[in-house]
Automatic annotation (TrEMBL):
<dbReference type="InterPro" id="IPR006439">
    <property type="entry name" value="HAD-SF_hydro_IA"/>
</dbReference>
<protein>
    <submittedName>
        <fullName>Phosphonatase-like hydrolase</fullName>
    </submittedName>
</protein>
<dbReference type="InterPro" id="IPR023214">
    <property type="entry name" value="HAD_sf"/>
</dbReference>
<keyword id="KW-0378">Hydrolase</keyword>
<dbReference type="GO" id="GO:0006281">
    <property type="term" value="P:DNA repair"/>
</dbReference>
<dbReference type="GO" id="GO:0005829">
    <property type="term" value="C:cytosol"/>
</dbReference>
<dbReference type="Pfam" id="PF00702">
    <property type="entry name" value="Hydrolase"/>
</dbReference>
<dbReference type="InterPro" id="IPR022468">
    <property type="entry name" value="PhnX-like"/>
</dbReference>
<dbReference type="InterPro" id="IPR050155">
    <property type="entry name" value="HAD-like_hydrolase_sf"/>
</dbReference>
<dbReference type="InterPro" id="IPR036412">
    <property type="entry name" value="HAD-like_sf"/>
</dbReference>
<dbReference type="GO" id="GO:0008967">
    <property type="term" value="F:phosphoglycolate phosphatase activity"/>
</dbReference>
Length: 214
């Protein structure tokens, strides 16, 4: 039995539609093609970690990360933030069946809160966390384990992790989750998600209930 579903946000429960790349270009307007490729390859990971990898200077990385978060928040405020079709109903149905739900993200806490407020999802999940709160971001298991501890679960085998990137998959596997599902509504391809070790690759989070019931 699954007692907890740990769900990624952008690309999994929230449509991205290129917002991450738009915010990245706003933060680093002179970014090289190689930098853009790195951002695409590290979708789902902590954004400050990505900027550290790119800029190799803590001050510059922090400045770029702040600019990124501000640009992304501006896009959210302008209405460029919509849920993956069916995501809210899936979450509501899971909770009605006694399954707890946690939201994780590679964004900062303020951005996560901005997205949840824009969607009217402030009270939709039982638990929310970010890399800064949990300790480390994906592909480390910290955010999944923070949800397990925060919600008082006793067994990681009662956890399902869902995300749209190989980093999400690795995070779930490293945490010991029973179900680690990749979804095709975000950055990852079927081959990439399967190659990372996903137990299931789904067209959308709408397919998650059937997996859990099975």
């Amino acid at each position: 039995m699954i007692a907890l579903a740990v769900l990624d946000m952008a690309g999994t429960t929230v449509l991205d539609d290129g917002l991450v790349e738009r915010a990245f270009h706003a933060a680093l307007p002179d970014a090289t093609p190689a930098m853009v490729d790195h951002v695409r390859a590290t979708m789902g990971q902590s954004k400050i970690t990505v900027f550290r990898d790119l800029l190799h200077d803590e001050t510059l990385a922090q400045r770029a990360n702040t600019a990124f978060e501000e640009a992304y928040a501006g896009l959210v405020d302008d209405g460029h933030c919509t849920p993956v079709p069916g995501a809210e109903q899936v979450i509501t149905d899971l909770r009605s069946r006694g399954v707890k739900v946690a939201f994780t993200t590679g964004f900062a806490r303020t951005t996560q809160e901005r997205i949840l407020a824009a969607l009217g999802w402030t009270d939709l999940a039982d638990f929310t966390t970010t890399p800064a709160q949990a300790g480390r971001g994906r592909p480390y298991p910290d955010m999944v384990l923070a949800a397990v501890l925060g919600l008082g679960l006793t067994d990681v085998r009662e956890v399902a992790v869902v995300g749209d990137t190989p980093s999400d998959v690795l995070s779930g596997l490293r945490a010991g989750a029973r179900v680690v599902a990749g979804v095709l509504t975000g950055a990852g391809t079927r081959a990439e998600l399967a190659g990372a070790g996903a137990t299931h690759v789904l067209d959308s989070i709408r397919d998650l209930p059937a997996v859990l019931e099975g």
